[in-house]
C-alpha cells in the first residue's frame, strides 16, 4: 500500500479548530483558496469575474443596488396561500425572473429590472450556473462591496425554475402596511424581518419612481451599508427631489433624496416603528438582522438539505465607513417620533450647510 507524502496531504487539506470542533478545509485547484466543500471551488472564478466586470472592480454602485434588488424580486415570488388554493404559488429563489423574463418583467412591480437581468445573463451562460444560484450569489458578492455590510450566506444547488412566479407576489411601494405585512407573512416573514430586509435600502437608489431623476438614493450614504436609512426616513418630509405626484413616493427630508411611501409608513406603524427605531444607531444589530433575513429569503422554496454551504466564497466586507448622524442642516427636532415606548436616540449632527445628495452614477 502506497502512502502520499505528508506535504502533499497538507497541501490538499488544512485543519482548523473552532469552538472545540475540528473543521477540515479543502484547497482548491488554484492552489490559493480553501473551502469547506470542494464543490464551492469553481465559485471563486465566478466571484472574481463579476467583481471585475459586473461590479466595476468591486464597487458598491448601481449594479450592486440592482443585483440586490433582483435577489428579492426573484425570491419573494413564493406564496404558500396560493398553493393551498390549488394554484401555483411560485418557486421562490429559483431564477424564474430570469428564465421567464418576458413574463415576469411585465409585472408592474418589476419595472426596470430587465436591465440587470440582461447584464447578468452573460455571466450565467459563461459560468454554467442556474439562474437561481447566480442571482443570489451575485447579490451576496455585490453587497460585500458596501462598507458596513454583513458577510451574507450563500447556499449552492438551486434547480432551474420550471414556471414563472405569479403576479402580485412582489410588494409595491404604494401598497398599504397591512398589504405588505400580509404578503411577507404569506412567504413566512415576521414584521420584524420585513424591516430587517429593508436595510437593503441603505445601499439603494430609485430609477423609475420618478423617471426624470434616475439614480436618486434613499439616504445620504448610498455606498455604505449603515443605519442612515433608519434615521433619515424618520425625519419629517418637506420636499420632492424631482416632481411630486409620483405613485409610491412621499416627501423626503433632504434635497436629492427620494422616499418611498412604504418605507415612510412602515417607520410610523405601531407594529414596526419601534423595531425600525432600534436600528437607527445600532450597526451591529442592523447587520445581524439583515444577514438572518437574507439567509431566509435566499432559500425560499428550496430544499436546503440538497444544497451546499458556500458562504466562505463570499468576501468579508470592510467595516462601516460612517457613524449614525443627522444630516447637516437638520436636527433632532426634525425627527417624527413614532415608537410609543422609547424615545428616538439622540444623534450627532453633521457639520456644515445643507447640500443636495448627488444621484448614484450609472456604470
From TrEMBL:
Signal peptide: 1-20
Cofactor: how and how many bound: Binds 1 heme b (iron(II)-protoporphyrin IX) group per subunit. Binds 2 calcium ions per subunit.
Top EC class, one word: oxidoreductase
Keyword Disulfide bond tagged: yes
Molecular function GO labels: heme binding; metal ion binding; peroxidase activity
GO BP term, example: cellular response to oxidative stress
UniProt-annotated binding residues for Ca(2+) 1: 74, 92, 94, 96
EC code(s) of this entry: 1.11.1.-
Site (Transition state stabilizer): 69
Entries under InterPro entries matching the protein: Ccp1-like, Haem_peroxidase, Haem_peroxidase_sf, Ligninase, Ligninase_C, Peroxidases_AS, Peroxidases_heam-ligand_BS
Positions of the catalytic residues: 73 (proton acceptor)
Record-listed heme b binding positions: 201
Record has Ribosomal protein as a keyword: no
Cofactor: heme b; Ca(2+)
Annotated S-S bridges: 28-41, 40-310, 60-146, 274-339
Keywords per UniProt: Calcium, Disulfide bond, Glycoprotein, Heme, Iron, Lignin degradation, Metal-binding, Oxidoreductase, Peroxidase, Signal
Domain Plant heme peroxidase family profile: 68-343
Short name of one Pfam family: peroxidase
Binding-site residues, Ca(2+) 2: 202, 219, 221, 226
Family per record: Belongs to the peroxidase family. Ligninase subfamily.
Name the record gives this protein: Peroxidase
Gene of this entry: MnP13
Amino acid at each position: 500500500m502506497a502512502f502520499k507524502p505528508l506535504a502533499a496531504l497538507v497541501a490538499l487539506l488544512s485543519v482548523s479548530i473552532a469552538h472545540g470542533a475540528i473543521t477540515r478545509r479543502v484547497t482548491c485547484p488554484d492552489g490559493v483558496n480553501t473551502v469547506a466543500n470542494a464543490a464551492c471551488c469553481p465559485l471563486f472564478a465566478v466571484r472574481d469575474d463579476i467583481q471585475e466586470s459586473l461590479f466595476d472592480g468591486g464597487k458598491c454602485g448601481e449594479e450592486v443596488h440592482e443585483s440586490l434588488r433582483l435577489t428579492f424580486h426573484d425570491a419573494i415570488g413564493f406564496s404558500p396561500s396560493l398553493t393551498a388554493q390549488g394554484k401555483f404559488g411560485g418557486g421562490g429563489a429559483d431564477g424564474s425572473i430570469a428564465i421567464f423574463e418576458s413574463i415576469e418583467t411585465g409585472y408592474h412591480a418589476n419595472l426596470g429590472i430587465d436591465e440587470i437581468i440582461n447584464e447578468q445573463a452573460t455571466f450565467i451562460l459563461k459560468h454554467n450556473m442556474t439562474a437561481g444560484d447566480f442571482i443570489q450569489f451575485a447579490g451576496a458578492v455585490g453587497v460585500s462591496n458596501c462598507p458596513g455590510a454583513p458577510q451574507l450566506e450563500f447556499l449552492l444547488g438551486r434547480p432551474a425554475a420550471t414556471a414563472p412566479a405569479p403576479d402580485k407576489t412582489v410588494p409595491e411601494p404604494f401598497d398599504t402596511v397591512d398589504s405588505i405585512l400580509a404578503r411577507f407573512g404569506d412567504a413566512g416573514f415576521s414584521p420584524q424581518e420585513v424591516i430587517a430586509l429593508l436595510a437593503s435600502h441603505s445601499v439603494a437608489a430609485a430609477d423609475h419612481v420618478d423617471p426624470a431623476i434616475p439614480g436618486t438614493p434613499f439616504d445620504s450614504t448610498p455606498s455604505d451599508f449603515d443605519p442612515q436609512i433608519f434615521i433619515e426616513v424618520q425625519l419629517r418630509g418637506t420636499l420632492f427631489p424631482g416632481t411630486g405626484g409620483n405613485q409610491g413616493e412621499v416627501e423626503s427630508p433632504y434635497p436629492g433624496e427620494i422616499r418611498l411611501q412604504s418605507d415612510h409608513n412602515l417607520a410610523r406603524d405601531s407594529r414596526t416603528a419601534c423595531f425600525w427605531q432600534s436600528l437607527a444607531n445600532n450597526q451591529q444589530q442592523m447587520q445581524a438582522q439583515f444577514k438572518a433575513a437574507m439567509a431566509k429569503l435566499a432559500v425560499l422554496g428550496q430544499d436546503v438539505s440538497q444544497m451546499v454551504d458556500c458562504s466562505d466564497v463570499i468576501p468579508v466586507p470592510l467595516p462601516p465607513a460612517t457613524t449614525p448622524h443627522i444630516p447637516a442642516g437638520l436636527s433632532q427636532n426634525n425627527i417624527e417620533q413614532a415608537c410609543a415606548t422609547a424615545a428616538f436616540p439622540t444623534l450627532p449632527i453633521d457639520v456644515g450647510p445643507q447640500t443636495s445628495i448627488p444621484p448614484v452614477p450609472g456604470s
